[in-house]
Amino acid sequence: MSVEPRKKRLNKKDAYKYMTRLGWNPTYQKEEDVFPFLEMEGLKIHDWEAWEDPFRMTMDSYWKLQAEKDKKLYSIIDAFAQNNAQKNISDARYVNALKLFLTGVTPLEYKVVQGFSHAARAFRGEGASIACQMQAIDELRHFQTQVHTMSHYNKYFDGFHDYSTMHDRIWYLSVPKSFGDDASTAGPFEYLTAISFSFEFVLTSLLFVPFMSGAAYNGDMATVTFGFSAQSDESRHMTLGLSAIKFMLEQDAQNVPIVQKWMDKWLWRGYRMLGLVAMMMDYMLPNSPTSWGEAVELYIEQNCMALYKDLEKYGIKVPEKLINTIVAEKGHLSHQVWNIFYNHTNAAAFHTWMPDENKMNWLSEKYPDTFDKYYRPMFERYIELEKKGERFYSEVLPLVCQTCQIPLGFTDIEGGNPHVYTHKTSEFNGEIFHTCSDGCKEIFDAQPEKYIQAWLPPHQIFQGNCGGATIPEVLKWYKIEHGVDNMDYVGSPDEAMWNKLKNK
């Protein structure tokens, strides 16, 4: 009996080569027709082969490891559901942080799938193309696991339905949506700078680490598991972001000012979007493991600054003006964002509340220079109004920034006027456009033709594009059921369900 000799196992280099093989040269079409986006950004690329796919060393084990991660994740999701673990979270107020994540972040993950798929097609280099394809697959997995994990809460609490429609329509969700739209309508290299570098490499820790540790602090182990499962992919994504930046900088010295402009723009745009995370960390988590101010000190003042300094050898400079603004605002940002949402809770797809005495004391400890001086008196005034039955609900939406679409509700901290709202204006083609800060004004002024096309929610209501002119009509178009999905947590169906689950 003869035995077929076993074929020799391919080494990693050959295995990667046979699994990819996208590096063909066009022969019957012009290269500029096959890759039409390569010239539009003004970068000079001399050697595409210099960009190696950072995923290449893990390609052969990628599918097995991802399958094992998913198997463990779905086992924990099943166990969470079968053991009615929704009863074990700290308080039903925590669920509102999940609603904000599901409507704000999860659809953005799917947008990133589309963006990286487009970037993979647009790049000339094989390494860049494969790396973008692999990240698109990762992001699709993140989108799916987030939806599957949080779907359990939809059985018990309101506000988890129709999250994708909410993402496209609700006023405050235009902040993450406009971030994704802005990035995906840029060229492929700017897209990678926006997502892979500025967000994944510089800012992702400000989103995922506090959110997942917050979930752990509040008893939500299913969310913790999907978070860590996704976070283990982020290290590869960070590698792609840094390799993209270094590739552009090393190809030609004339690329440096272009890359510097993109890095600064997307650092600021990412920071503005994370204002929603600041509110979540300090106010929406019943038990907060860390404050927004502490996170800024670690991830921006230390890590981000160190990253910029590492790139100084290429000619990249630290954006001192932007960093100074971020540092100046760290003691104010979360309080001002929560104040905006508390007053507009009738048009939000989650509940709000005033912090109790324990939470206020925690905020006083974390923000000794600002909370007791500026925000505790204001919130105690709100509590008094609630007790007297004079709770205020805004009947209109705030003016939003033409660039980042954050409401113009931040004050002039750097200028020493914490009670005065910041407001910048730009003129283009005879019209006035409003922005929230110097950072957003500079972004607008650099590309006014792009940002005048922004879909601004308050303006769209006035133009009759949001189901009607009244609050009930707009809420119906938002897919928000008034009195169920919005308004105060106290007295809500969510509170009633929580009391039922806890036998109160």
Descriptive report:
With 504 residues, this protein is mainly α. It is 59% helix and 3% strand. The protein contains 22 helices and four strands. The chain has helices at 12-20, 31-34, 59-82, 95-104, 106-122, 126-150, 163-169, 174-184, 188-217, 221-251, 256-273, 275-284, 292-310, 320-329, 333-343, 357-366, 371-387, 438-446, 448-451, 457-462, 471-478, 493-501; strands at residues 411-412, 417-421, 424-428, 431-435. A two-stranded antiparallel sheet has the order 1-2. It has a two-stranded antiparallel ribbon with strand order 3-4. A hairpin with a 4-residue loop joins strand 1 (411-412) and strand 2 (417-421). The longest helix has 31 residues, at 221-251. The chain is globular and about 85 Å long. The mean pLDDT is 91.
